[in-house]
Amino acid sequence: MPIHSPIQYAPEECSQQTAYNKRVGILASHNGALFELGSAVELFGLARPEFDNWYHCQVISLASSPLNYTAGVGIHAHTVSDFSGYDLIVVPHWSTAEKPHHNSPAHRHLKAAAAAGCQIISFCSGAFLLAECGLLDGKKATTHWRFSERFQQRFGQVQFAKDVLYVFDGQIGCSAGSAAGLDLGLEVIRQDHGYQIANQVARRLVISAQRQGGQSQFVETPMQKTPSKFSATLDWALANLDRDIDIDRLAEKANMSRRTFDRKFRASFQLSANQWLIMQRLNMAKQRLEESNLPLDRIAEQTGFNNAITLRHHFNKILGISPSGYRAQFAKTQ
């Protein structure tokens, strides 16, 4: 997944804003959900003076009149005529009605923003607006599990991901349920500012910096009577990433056959066990690159990649950046 830099605008378009602060517009609309709106504001709009070049954020609307929200709450948003002044547009919610107005101002301006390279992410039902605009055509996307059947019926051209917390390709993203918007927002922050800052934001929110699993874990299911050996096996793997971990051994620790273990892993994470291990090792390597001056060979050993060549290979293949390039962009030891 490539790391994208904020879009740069001409100086005259940034009279009240430095070129280094990413400009975020949170799109408010009638009959919206307060939690999703509040989550977006908490992520991008809360003042964080401890960080340099934090986001410049506004709650925006294409309508000049006050907006009605849940429980009769009224919102006065900053009125805009289009989205050209923003690097990132967040759609916290949207109507799931069967007959949308495809040529509404919101649709026209969102499509124009995407064509100009603006990042666009949605929370929960906000994916319906992105899909109506054609921004998800041919791409993987998700929304809340309650809306999944309706979404798939209406948008057959979208590759629906049924059991993920969020999907984000660097420009366009959408999250599953309401709280999964926090996970997607943290991923945007992580790509913009690095793991250390994203972890600090998560800590302030009192949530996990990077949750595992998919939204199926939040659908009502019977409570297990005993702790899962599968989850205990994953905890062991996370604590021993520096070791040479054999997938057959993981299956044995989980008390499963290899075939059952592979099937369980794919159903839980939409990844193979080996792909999951690589992603966890990359996460650890990012943290080492940010927080230390250790040479690449040493970081490779600590994270289970064995040597710098393998580490560079996975960084370039999956993240679209070299380890040295990542360190130059995000390291706090510079």
Descriptive report:
- This is Transcriptional regulator FtrA.
- Keywords: DNA-binding, Transcription, Transcription regulation.
- InterPro entries: Class_I_gatase-like (IPR029062), DJ-1/PfpI (IPR002818), Homeodomain-like_sf (IPR009057), HTH_AraC (IPR018060), HTH_AraC-typ_CS (IPR018062), INH-QAR (IPR052158).
- It is a single chain.
- By secondary structure, this protein is of the alpha/beta class.
- It has 2 domains: 11-205, 3-Layer(aba) Sandwich (Rossmann fold); 224-334, Arc Repressor Mutant, subunit A (Orthogonal Bundle), CATH 1.10.10.
- Helices cover 41% and strands 11% of the residues.
- It is built from 13 helices and 11 strands.
- It has helices at residues 34-45, 105-115, 127-132, 148-154, 180-193, 195-205, 229-239, 247-253, 258-269, 273-291, 296-302, 308-319, 323-330, and strands at 23-27, 56-61, 67-68, 74-75, 78-79, 88-91, 119-122, 140-141, 159-160, 166-168, 172-175.
- A 7-stranded mixed beta sheet has the order 5-2-1-6-7-11-10, with helices on both faces.
- Strand 8 (140-141), helix 4 (148-154) and strand 9 (159-160) form a beta-alpha-beta unit.
- Helix 1 packs parallel to helix 5.
